[in-house]
Write a structure and sequence with these properties.
This protein is low in regular secondary structure. The chain is built from 1 helix and 2 strands, in the order H-E-E.
Length: about 60
C-alpha cells in the first residue's frame, strides 16, 4: 500500500470558508471561519489532525 503524502514547508492551508471568501462575491465568509486552533491527533506526538487556517485575514497570520 502506498503512503499518502502532503506538501510541507511554506505551504499555507486555508479553511473552506477562507478559500471561498477569496472570491469577491463571498468576502463576508471570512467571519465564518472556525479553524482558529491547531487540533492535534490524540497520542500523535505533535502530528496535527487539522491545522488552523493560515489565511492572512486572521490576527495569528500576521495581519489583522
Amino acid at each position: 500500500m502506498k503512503a499518502t503524502t502532503f506538501p510541507v514547508g511554506d505551504s499555507v492551508v486555508l479553511s473552506a470558508e477562507c478559500t471561498l471568501a477569496k472570491r469577491p462575491e463571498y468576502q463576508g465568509l471570512h467571519r465564518e471561519c472556525r479553524r482558529t486552533d491547531d487540533i492535534p491527533l490524540p497520542h500523535g506526538r505533535g502530528i496535527l489532525l487539522q491545522p488552523r487556517c493560515g489565511c492572512s485575514c486572521h490576527p495569528w497570520a500576521g495581519c489583522s
